[in-house]
Design brief:
The chain is an alpha+beta fold. The chain has a 3-stranded antiparallel sheet, with no helix packed on it. A 3-stranded antiparallel sheet has the order 2-3-4, covered by helices on one side. It is globular, with a radius of gyration of 17 Å. The structure holds FE2/S2 (inorganic) cluster. FE2/S2 (inorganic) cluster binds next to loops.
């Protein structure tokens, strides 16, 4: 695939991401004002933590926000998805998350603080496309072994429901888990470690 194809893919993602988060509220309400700010104020706003409401997220659903200019996903995993992660250790490249792709508090089998909720930066670790969320099991286009996860259409990288990269695909490492903390049962703050919240 040429770099222009990749760029086109990224442009498409950015357009989609802006559309996807436009209804999420508070975190994005300030965007129209950013243009009037000084460069340092703008930089601070772009790097600021972003709060995500997860109260209405049903099992299997994903919500998206933008943090530091990057897409961040929060997925509410089903019991079946959690079981699939445990069964896939032999098929993923770094089952124990030994690479530094997550904070210490998410360096565990499910790569999360709470088993049910997965928080990821939605950027492929190969060349930076944004993978698609494909929670369905064994869809026709991904084959009988697919147990749900994230598929990067740019060069075919596959990640499981913990964002762990499958062996034998172009992406070298697991998807990144960003710093995050729970402000309440139904609210997550992206960009802040629990001890600093
Ligand atoms: S960018 Fe190449 S597989 Fe995702």
């Amino acid at each position: 695939m040429s770099s222009s194809d990749v760029n086109t893919g990224r442009r498409r993602f950015l357009t989609g991401a802006v559309a996807a988060v436009s209804g999420i509220g508070g975190a994005f309400a300030a965007v129209p004002f950013i243009a009037a700010w000084t460069p340092s104020e703008r930089a601070k706003a772009i790097g600021a933590p972003v709060e995500v409401s997860i109260g209405s997220l049903e099992p299997g659903q994903m919500t998206r926000v933008k943090w530091q200019g990057k897409p961040v996903w929060v997925v509410r995993r089903t019991e079946e998805a959690l079981a699939s992660i445990r069964a896939l250790d032999a098929k993923v490249r770094d089952p124990d998350s030994t690479a530094d792709q997550q904070p210490a508090y998410a360096t565990n089998e499910l790569r999360s603080i709470k088993p049910e909720y997965l928080v990821l930066v939605g950027i492929c670790t190969h060349l930076g496309c944004s993978p698609s969320y494909r929670p369905e099991v064994a869809p026709a286009d991904l084959g009988p072994e697919w147990q749900g996860g994230f598929f990067c259409v740019c060069h075919g990288s596959r990640f499981d429901m913990a964002g762990r990269v499958y062996a034998g695909v172009p992406a070298p490492t697991n998807l990144v888990v960003p710093k995050h903390t729970y402000l309440a049962e139904d609210r997550i703050l992206i960009g802040v470690d629990p001890e600093n919240a």
